[in-house]
Amino acid sequence: MFENRPRRTASSQRAQTLFDLRTIIAALFGIYGTVLTVMGAAGQMPAELRKAGGWNVNLWCGLGMLAFATAFGAWALLRPVSVPPAEADPDTRDTALARTG
Amino acid sequence: MLTLADANLRLNARPIDYALIAVYFAFVLGIGLLARRKVASSMDFFLSGRSMPAWVTGLAFISANLAAVEILGMTADGAQYGLPSVHYYWIGAVPAMVFLGLVMMPFYYGSKVRSVPEFLLRRFGRFAHLVNSVSFALAQVLIAGVNLYALSTVVNLLLGWPSWLSILAAGAIVLVYTLLGGLSAAIYNEVMQFFVILALLLPLTLVGLHRVGGWNGLVGRIDGSSGDAALQLHSWPGTNLTGIGDSTLSVLGIVFGLGFVLSFGYWTTNFTEVQRALSARSMSAARRTPLIGAYPKTLLILLIMIPGMVAAVLSPQLSALKAANAADPSVQSLGGVSFNNSIELLMRDLLPNGMLGIAIAGLLAAFMAGMAANVSSFNTVVTYDIWQTYVKKDRPDEYYLRTGRVLTVVGCLVAIGTAFIAGNFGNIMDYLQTLFGFFNAPLFATFVLGMFWKRMTPAAGGIGLIAGTASAITIDMLNRTGILHVSGQGASFLGAIAAFVVDILLSVAVSLVTRPRTDAELTGLVWSLTRRGDRVHEATGEDAGWYRRPAVLAVGVLALATALNIAFW
After folding, report:
1. Within an 8 Å CB–CB cutoff, is residue A40 touching chain B?
2. Does B10 map to a domain?
3. Considering only CB atoms, which chain B residues are within 8 Å of A3?
4. Nearest to B344 by CA among B62, B4, B25
5. ipTM of this predicted complex?
6. Tens digit of pLDDT for each residue in A60-89?
7. Which of A42, B309, B345, B519 is deepest in the core (most CB within 10 A)?
8. Which DSSP letter does residue B293 get?
């Protein structure tokens, strides 16, 4: 995603995967999922279970988020961003400007 | 709007909840810092250098609109009206997004304009352009202020923070990341916010449905509790939503007013949305942006409306309000609770600590997504359409990049100021928001006519816009002063239809007596003067594949919306 880096060495490729939006989203939900799963597994208070009609909301949401994070992480790893060939045509704004004038 | 000091909606947030909220804000600011690395020119700052993949712009496209005002407002509609609220999405947004992707995007992206007002400038000249850019820029900062004010009331309600603190804190966070990373930071955050908002809505929907005994349980409870249950449990004719007593007229009001005019006007000409598509990396990706966004958009209403319906059944305060409202429509709040509080009531009543923190983060995310979208489209329009076009022409690019940064600060400061003022004049802000809604309906009429009728003249463009807006305002005034009698949302549908019709008629009349622009000036801006080759896009490389064809995506999402419409008939 943050791909406008001209050099494509192994390390910059790794940096790109790290800064890929998909990786960031996976990291956020990885943290959230872990915290919730631990909280849920540690047990919910009866009052909180009653709130949700007997469901352990933290546990299930946590597991759901971990699954989501895994899917996004896998997507980022399996289909890394490729640096597109130089496509930004420098005359874009000039023509746009010229025509408005 | 949100006045509820005395209702005890305070959430029992614990340190773990605050920690989870803090994690979210760390990510938001981190994205701003990362995106900063690739801002080298004004194009990078304002349009992300036209480099975004379609799934990112597609999600940002709907996220920019999925502000908290939208979530609170639509759950409120779900609680109050039930199923007819789906029309905002299935009759309103989705067909309009398809139209934008298939028909209008080739002109926007293909003509390489950098904003919607700039398209007006090239098609109709300065008059229409100036009217539109000034009204748009003004509307954006004021709406950003409304967003911020609404956020402060919700934070005050849920967590007990003083309003000034949450206004300043949220304003500062949005300022920092849009200032650093420009549109890229706003877009990346919108995509992340989309998923955090989902993490708020999905558990609420599932747990809520579980509590009321599934969909059938919900239907049974609504059936038993209210007199107009049939209206709430069928999407058509939606007379409770429109406030138009006659079924046929109500359906016409929904299809033409809400669907054709209001929603087409909003989704196809509002630069806040279109800007996301303009930042896509190719014509194909730009056309797919609204189409990809339309899929989650179609399903999202279920996750917004169902919690609203559940809240009205589960919460004794809301059911009492609903009964009172059915007896006397002027009752909008009871004991400090209004329909706008549906989602907060559900969060309080259903979610355990932990999940609660993430849900609060989701709600805050929604507020900031809205504000960042307003600020990032404001700085683009003011820089390119007002400053560069009328004030300081022909400066080097760095100058405009710097201007954009300064304007981001100015926009945020004005929004913060507006938020403080709105605290004292809540109703005025409500009214302002309605007022700026008036600009969209005639805008769509002018765009469609201008894109397909090359004879339409610059004078017609400007006069049509002004007359259309004036007629929408007139209808609104007539309704407010009691000369027209339409309750519910019917008045705004009616106003939109009037604006559209007046704009079209007047534009045609004026065009016939004034001089049109030459064909050469209109190449690429009008359908008949644009070569087919310039309207279609490359289908090679990352744009190849049948599943990436805009027509295929469009048919798919329309089929989905139709199927859902039939299922919830």
Report:
1. yes
2. no
3. 51
4. B4
5. 0.85
6. 999 999 999 999 999 888 877 665 444 444
7. B309
8. H
